[in-house]
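The record is kept unedited without comment:

——
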Amino acid sequence: MDGNNDNFFLIRHGETYANRLNYIQGTLNDKLTSLTKRGMQEAANYQKLFDNNQIDYVYTSPLRRAVKTGQIICATTNIKLQIDERLAEISYGKWNGADISKLKQQYSMYFDVETNDVRPHSILINQGENFEHARARIWSFLLDTSYKYPQQNILIITHGWIIKNIISLCLENIDGTSFKNPNNLSISKIQLNPALNQQRICYYNRPFIGTMIL
């Protein structure tokens, strides 16, 4: 890729009570999906990101766990968070808020053994969002943002399924379940050049080190 590309930095939101309990979250947006004390403290470490790196724009999912993470990260900057509905986590329908271990006991055929993730055909029983629909909205956000802000550094705070499917889309992989979810507050990086229809994965699911150069 040449130098005329956008850098997208993808951060998964901080730890929530649902994460700690091993509940599936999806689009659940209640107290269960609030950040834990640990999640808030760890998110604050990302404030160091702006000391050594230029971030031009910050986008977040509309769900409270992502917005709160973004607010903490940007608390010491003048950058205004922009919320985009397309960055919301995929909905698992009737499974939003359910205990993952119990779901796996009852519906093992709908979970990938290697990645511990829900398979696309699970929507047949949980009435959640179609995986291809979710992937299409993610990609439309990336393309729209890249055209709007060419050659910029864009930080995105979103969700595990969203991030790993962005990686999957860069590889033209049709099934995002090929990857395990990134850890809470890990960082991944991709580059896009929509004019040349090029995309590159720089890294995935890295722990953040305060002095790292992005």
Observations:
- The two ends are 17 Å apart (CA to CA).
- The first strand starts at residue 6 and ends at 12.
- The helical segments are 17-21, 37-44, 49-52, 64-73, 100-106, 123-126, 131-148, 160-170.
- The first helix runs from residue 17 to 21.
